[in-house]
Every structure is written in C-alpha cells, then in structure tokens.
Amino acid sequence: MAAAPILIRAQSQGERALVRVLMAHEMESGQRKDGDGRTIPAWHIHEVLVTLQGRPVLTMRWGPSVSKNPFLRFVLRGAKPGDRVGVSWTDTRGERRDAEAVVA
C-alpha cells in the first residue's frame, strides 16, 4: 500500500488557530465480511497525536467505530502565524503517518 498522506491546514484566528485534518485510511472495524463470508480483520487508527511547535498538545485514542478517511476540525489556543502544527497517527498494524503545516 502506498503511503496515504495526511492533509492538514492551519489558519490563524487571532490568539488561536483553526486546524483541519483529513487522514486517508480504510478503518476496518473487524465486523464486516468479504465476498467469501470470511471476517475482514480489524485495521484502524488507534492513536492520533497533535503537536504545536514540536510539543504535544492533544492525544486521541480511537477504536473501530471511527469512519473511513477521518476528518478532524479543532481550535488550538496560543497558536500564531508561523507556528508549526504536526499531526501523526499509528494504526493497529503498526503503520504510521505524519504531516506538518505552518499556521497561515
């Protein structure tokens, strides 16, 4: 599987930044069956980490109920133009992705 990107945008709104993140991932719950009736194994993002200027500001633990290609939208207080916002995730197979954006 080719490395699917994380698309991230951070826009300044005074003393805070609006951050939008789109993560490409299949997010299998482990409850669906394939065409032959076999259960498709669970495979989903289980941890997401958000950093501001390299310091962790948000950690999320996810389960199989999160939808395919999850989209996040949140506000970071204390972020200003030029600051770097990073997002990384790890899934149940141990795959990792990360991306960074500069607050515009």
TrEMBL record:
NCBIfam families: SoxZ_true. SUPFAM superfamilies: E set domains. InterPro entries: Ig-like_fold (IPR013783), Ig_E-set (IPR014756), SoxZ (IPR030995), SoxZ_dom (IPR014880). This is Sulfur oxidation protein SoxZ. Residues 9-101 form the Sulphur oxidation protein SoxZ domain. The gene is soxZ. Pfam families: SoxZ.
